[in-house]
Amino acid sequence: MTAWWCELAWLEVPSQGVRIEEAGGVIRSVTRQRRPGDEVLPGLVLPGFANAHSHAFHRALRGRTHDRGGTFWTWRDQMYGLAAVLDPDSYLELARAVFAEMVLAGYTVVGEFHYLHHGPGGQRYDENNAMGRALVQAATDAGIRLTLLDACYLQGGLDGRPLEGPQLRFGDGDVDRWAGRIADLVDTPMVRHGVAAHSVRAVPVEALPVIARRALRHVHLSEQPAENADCLAVHGRTPTELLDEAGFLGSGACAVHATHLRDGDLGRLARTAICVCPSTERDLADGIGPARDHRGPVCLGSDQHAVIDPFEEARGLEMDERLASLQRGRFTPEELVTAATANGYAALGWDGGAIRPGAVADLVAVQLDSVRTSGTIPLQIALSASAADVTDVVVGGRRVVREGRHGLGDVGRLLTAAMSPLRT
Length: 424
What we know:
The protein is of the alpha/beta class. It folds into 2 domains: 99 residues, Urease, subunit C, domain 1 (Roll); 301 residues, TIM Barrel, CATH 3.20.20. The chain has 13 helices and 16 strands. 51% of the residues are buried.
């Protein structure tokens, strides 16, 4: 059992003098009286942040895709080039460093949307889930909680054309082979397994009900206008309508991006979580989605990791809304923190993102006297802080970051060492 004393902690709002007691990685009590031997967590202590949508290997593209502008589709070509050179060993090295960067920034759980399954040309590794197990090992080494969302990816477009080139690494042939491959994946106290339909572009309509039967399921939805146009041309329905008819939406489902919804789509998504990735949607010029109009929960992800900073994503949610609506205060400070914490935990299948008995013991201490946060009202911390203000991170009751340093050491060097062999 471990107990932490917090001069200031986020109990739905910032509260003075909070004692948090943990046993077995779960918060057992939250009280107000300090005791001898309590560990001190400095600054403002928040529940852990959830990165509800991640593609770990995309991190190697940061700062390398902006020459002469380009589009989402030209960016995707560069992503395919990177996907072509990874193997289980290099993926482990890269993902370990990326997950460590996340923890250093205050993320305590990540939903890894995993579709890079096989070897070049689609050749199977001796261990069918070698790439997925590399991600699990990377998360374990980095000290972050993981939901591995194994993505079904079977075709190259809504017209049913076959996979080709680097895409062959993503596919299992058919939905039954995909389901068989993931059947032996087992949860642990720090790892959960869910599933994903990569998109309606990549999964035939007849395969969607098979994926929809899974309790925890994610999908890329209407990230690009072209997806809507193609879906309407082929099926006479929007992607949201197609997913709804397949039984994919509702409790346990999370629609990632949902940027370019059509009339009626929001109503169909009312019982489905939406994951918004503001830094990626800005970076790729994807657009601003209708997050404020969504009646269900909104969570946040860093997707392709142009930025790894939970405060930037939370702030981006509000600031993008301001640009689209010409109004301030579209989300309250409390709603921004909930989107960054509890909503993400729920979308990833964990009872967490809150400081209360029964929640997993994931905590983040944020400095209140830095050049960014000095003078900030604690309630508005999401509007001023950055990842650089995180001093201490506790995951499952274990302090993984102490005084701004990750237990693995210099994370910048880890990233450089992991990415250097991937450069072509």
